[in-house]
Write a structure and sequence with these properties.
By secondary structure, the chain is α/β, with parallel strands linked by helices. The protein is about 40% helix and about 15% strand.
Length: about 350
């Protein structure tokens, strides 16, 4: 026999079922000694090695977890994948990456494929798990019938699953208060989308913090523009072109570091200095933040720890059928030069 021997070949030659072959390879005491010897002789003759994945499936396990992400162009999602993969491997599981584009309904084919593979659980992250996304309720209901589900996203009553999320209130509060202590009163927020849960929540928390500090919440200072560097460029151009010079904000808070990167480029192209003329703070604390000119102050949401926690909670839920709950991770402001901290307090109007 030139081809690779399978469990079906062993079972057929021994005159037993594939389940019996599996019991022999796993030393199940329920197999008769005569049957065990017959099957074992054939196994030894062909140097047959059982498939680990087939054995796991026989036990009702795939030892595989799915991670569903939007396109991983954003390094934030790469960090989630890397940490989730490391945690899965450390616990004896493999991670299957699935990408599902933003702003589109969750396809039924995706749900069916996740179920068909008899996975041990599924993790979701990013705006693909937005509560207003078409097909969400049906997908969640079907998936939870077959496996535990964990979402790295803000909690919502519509999401009947475990939610691991960053502190979105602190995410807005930390940069606003920091800029306020440096003397800034005209602070703008750029990036994200008012139509998506996580994004709109960040923007709303920003406005609430402005009001709590008695700072102006001019609608012109809140631009819904997207998530990448090009969005940051466009936002600064739209913002400053649409206002008189005396109404220009003295500080910008970007939805994420990619938006801040584009904003930084556009601010410089318009002849302004960061942070002397305009302070800038991003969010996510990406690897490139210490290397921009000037180094970018950013809010760290600790996506690595959220990813590791998500894997751990999923595996726990698989064992004890845990009900839905939410777990929040605090954020931190990583101060670098772009916010103007080294300039100290300035009386800015």
């Amino acid at each position: 026999m030139n081809r690779k021997v399978t469990i079906y070949d062993i079972a057929r030659e021994a005159g037993v079922s594939t389940a019996t072959v599996t019991r022999v390879t796993s030393n199940d005491p329920r197999v008769k000694s005569s049957t065990r010897e017959r099957v074992q002789r054939i196994i030894d003759a062909y140097a047959y090695t059982p498939s680990a994945s087939a054995r796991d499936l026989e036990r009702g396990q795939s030892k595989t977890i799915a991670l569903v992400l939007p396109q991983i162009i954003n390094p934030y999602f790469t960090r989630i994948f890397n940490s989730a993969n490391e945690e899965a491997i450390a616990n004896g599981y493999s991670l299957w990456l699935v990408q599902s584009p933003d702003h589109k309904p969750i396809p039924r084919t995706l749900t069916e494929e996740l179920i068909r593979r008899r996975l041990d659980g599924v993790l979701f992250a990013g705006n693909i798990w937005s509560t207003d996304r078409s097909g969400l309720s049906e997908a969640l209901s079907r998936l939870r019938h077959h496996m535990p589900v964990v979402a790295i996203c803000p909690p919502n009553a519509k999401l009947d699953c475990i939610c691991i999320h960053s502190d979105l209130v602190g995410c807005a509060r930390l940069p606003v208060r920091h800029l306020h202590t440096l003397g800034h009163r005209r602070i703008a927020f750029i990036g994200g989308s008012l139509l998506e849960g996580d994004s709109s929540q960040r923007g709303q928390n920003f406005l609430e913090e402005l009001r709590a500090l008695g700072l102006p919440d001019d609608p012109a200072y809140h631009l819904d523009c997207g998530y990448d560097a090009e969005s940051g460029e466009r936002a600064v151009l739209r913002l400053l072109s649409g206002l008189e010079r005396k109404r220009w904000p003295t500080a910008l808070i970007a939805f994420n570091d990619l938006v801040a990167l584009g904003a930084l480029k556009q601010i410089k192209q318009m002849g302004l200095r960061v942070p002397d003329d305009m302070a800038l703070i991003g969010c996510d604390n990406q690897f490139f933040c210490p290397y921009t000119d000037p180094p970018l102050t950013s809010v760290d949401l600790y996506p690595e720890e959220m990813a590791r926690s998500a894997v751990r909670e999923l595996l726990i839920a698989r064992e004890n059928n845990a009900s839905s709950f939410s777990l929040v991770r605090e954020s931190s402001l990583i101060v670098r030069e772009s916010c103007g901290a080294k300039l100290g307090y300035r009386k800015l109007e």
